[in-house]
Design goal:
The chain has 753 residues and is an alpha/beta fold. Helices cover 44% and strands 16% of the residues. Strand 18, helix 20 and strand 19 form a beta-alpha-beta unit. Helix 1 runs antiparallel to helix 2 and helix 5 runs antiparallel to helix 8. The protein is elongated.
Length: 753
Amino acid sequence: MPTAPGGPRVLLRRLREIMAEPIGAQARLDKIVTLIAANMVAEVCSVYVMRADGALELYATEGLNREAVHLTTMKAGEGLVGLIAKTAEPLSLSDAQSHPAFSYRPETGEEIYHAFLGVPLLRAGNTLGVLVVQNRTYRVYTDEEMEALQTTSMVLAEMLASGELQAIAAQEATALRRPLHQRGVPLADGVGLGHVVLHEPRIVVKNLIAEDVQREVKRLEQAIEETRAAIDELIEHGDVAHHGEHREVLETFRMFAHDQGWLRRMREAVLTGLTAEAAVERVQSDNRARMLRQTDPYLRERLHDLDDLANRVLHRLVGREFVTAQASLPDNAIVVARSMGPAALLEYDRSRLRGLVLEEGGPTSHIAIVARALAIPAVGEVENATALVETGDPIIIDGSVGDVQIRPRADVESAYAAKARLRARRQEQYRKLRDLPAVTKDGIEIGLHLNAGLLVDLPHLAETGAAGVGLFRTELQFMIAERMPSGAAQQKFYSAVLEAVGDRPVTFRTLDIGGDKILPYMKKVEEENPALGWRAIRISLDRPALLRSQIRALLKAAAGRPLKVMFPMVATCAEFARAREIVEREQAYLSHHGHAAPSSIALGAMVEVPSLLFEIGEIARQADFLSVGSNDLMQYLFAADRENRMVAHRFDPLSPPSLRALKLIVDHAAAAGRPVTLCGELGGKPLEAMALIGLGFRELSMAPASVGPVKAMVLKLDAARVSALLERELARPAVESLRPALVEFAERQGVPV
């Protein structure tokens, strides 16, 4: 049986008239189901809306018993309607009652109807409800009828999203507004309460129903052609670095942009009566719904590519440039993004920023490092985060455990507000310790330093009372730049750093790039295992001009002042010797040309590659100081990728192998009379820092937020006692981890960890 004359276009035109009428939400919905039934020549049309508790509630019907409205409900996955909601796929049956999922509801009176067609109400891939038509005859619905119903369902989904239907059942929030609890990976400590700001704001399609279908087809085709041309230009001639996108990502966009099936589906959606914008939104919502239910990680990853491409086409249609950052923020903003680079985060007004939620990005990513530097609570690897929220939604994040509460209930919000107040009180207590020297109860002074990488980090020196900067990551300056910083720009930056730290010491680490740290303007080298590949000092020694430029800038900037420089990922003493030769040649060059020299120069090696443990005596004698990069040392020591959730926490850094390796380093440094600092994450955790002091470390470098808690631990610690404990425990056979013994010691001695 065909649809009524005029088909979906007439239906959409009449829908627009009903939506413009000054009537209540229930009356509007009742008129809509009557209109759809008439247009589809169906005896039944019903709308089921998904509530916040996941149940589907009958909101309106034409043909079933009206008394069942707001009384008939079914659980997610229950019955044919529940099946459609669960799979997000349309369902067409000539005999609904013979389907194994059919669930009989006597109050509806639907037992006399056989033919069944149901489609999900989708928005951004999320199921908000189900739209159903039914007939008494055993008939088969055509593809055109299914397309018409899907088109209509999009209009209903937008009505739900706009809140028009909330008044119908005020006691039950719909699925779009339901509270959600998501768990991600902690990136930066802290609790943030605020409202969502999308880093890449979605185009909100308000005009859904076309006035002139042929004009909309032309607009769609023109927008796609412009998008294709823009992507081709970026790949072939454009400054890819300026746009911060790698070529292979753009090649994927180009492949999708030329996919004829994608274009055909959008054109068909326009021909049913939607605007070009609504057609793009509808097709992408269908794609998203399907891909979110895939288990294949490759297919799910393609969802991001399709989202980006659809967003580009929408920006073309509404005449806006495709932009990613938004500098001005409302108060108490929490930015939600698929991914973000360090430069983009720095563009936001930090006085209004309360948190960051990312779909991508692990604890050692550069965005995480910058978030910690800015003391912004952050959570990463939150699946589908950008599609679960709307701009302005209330949201809470807990960066210490990785929790994200979207549209939280009042009791949840109250609990987190109390937690935030408690943290603020603790921070105030730590601030009172700022001017106290970090000395243990038995009189051992511990140097607490900061890890930094940006000028915005350096005010934390005064705020925390830190002794200096134990690790300055010079690569962050390169990562947030649009092109390679010149020697003059580097010199100016290093001078500003030295000026900002004043009399406190600062240790500059030369470029640690490669692996997961790819500069946007450098060609990416494809490697099977980047973490073990061409990175850090290996790049510097293979491309000595890069290292020479940086060393020359550092030497010039430090004229008349002490300069400390360390080289990352040194695997052998020979590598360190080659790096030292480059520094000595630059010193000679500058001296020859009359440049003022630093008052002193100290060159150090980072101990983070296990091979160096077997030359630890030699490197301790060759280097002026040692610095332990515990993050990399632990992952290489245990052959456990720290970004891999399956193994990242499989090995405890407080187990005998790691503690013995650390003891080996500190003992050889002491024998050679060389200072040694630990600048990995271990140094910023009070319990782990207590163990490090027990091993003999006297200098620790950490994130600014860690200085207070670690200092509070130091002031209550008897270093000799914890040293004796470690000596005893490490001598015992078959000890899996010293963590329980250290926790018990801290509790017994009253040491806050």
